[in-house]
Amino acid sequence: MFFTTLSKASLALLVASMILVLTQKAEAHSYADCIDWRFKDPKNPSWSDKNGACFGYARRFPLKAKLFAKLDSDDPNRHYQQSHKNPDPDHSLACSDGKQGEEPGADETMGKPISAAYTGTDKRGRKVGPQTVSKPGGQLCVRWPAKNHAVPDEKNQPVTIALSEVNPTKDPTQLQFLSNIITNLNYKNCSDTKLNTDIWPCGGCFKLPTTLKPGNFVMQWRWKLNSNEWYTSCADIDVRAK
Ligand SMILES: *[C@@H]1O[C@H](CO)[C@@H](O)[C@H](O)[C@H]1NC(C)=O
């Protein structure tokens, strides 16, 4: 009797810890948390909530749904992982439709009109973040959570930022984005690295091309974790004349 109870209890514990390990592994992936991060004090920049604020987001980004770094365990999650097949990630869907991929993400398809992805609420009734507004040559600072992958023993894989043509009527293919990468950012550029390595805030700053015409541009954030393992987030930038 005692042994049966014990083994049942330890079996339950084992299963519980396996589920924990598996789900943590499955969820520890990154995504663009903010497209237009502004530092409170540009002379003392940091990516933590207390030192800045976000002025523009990815499509249908639920504000205040979760703490920073925790939207990969949202329902649906934010870490869209592109398909490995078809024949490879460079040919797979560029922005999540919430259905395809190794790990389908949240719905990041283009809004109709584009602004519809930045107003009102998402499918679960949660208020979504505003669209990014900038200008030709404008600086953007993009933020993401480290998700344990910015520690020294992890390979540093870049984040690529790519743009569409002006005023596209549909999302570029992945190959089209790859032909217009405007910058590579250092994934491990994190600040406030004392706490839990999962929630280190990281990011990179860059300038939009000065030659952009006013209009909407789709911007893709893309991060490589393993050789064929890519995660993307998509946002629209409203570029206004200077
Ligand atoms: C790295 O992060 C800091 C903030 O901690 C930021 O000021 C800087 O621009 C970032 N570097 C690059 C190259 O993006």
TrEMBL record:
<feature type="signal peptide">
    <location>
        <begin position="1"/>
        <end position="28"/>
    </location>
</feature>
<keyword id="KW-0732">Signal</keyword>
<protein>
    <recommendedName>
        <fullName>Chitin-binding type-4 domain-containing protein</fullName>
    </recommendedName>
</protein>
<feature type="region of interest" description="Disordered">
    <location>
        <begin position="74"/>
        <end position="139"/>
    </location>
</feature>
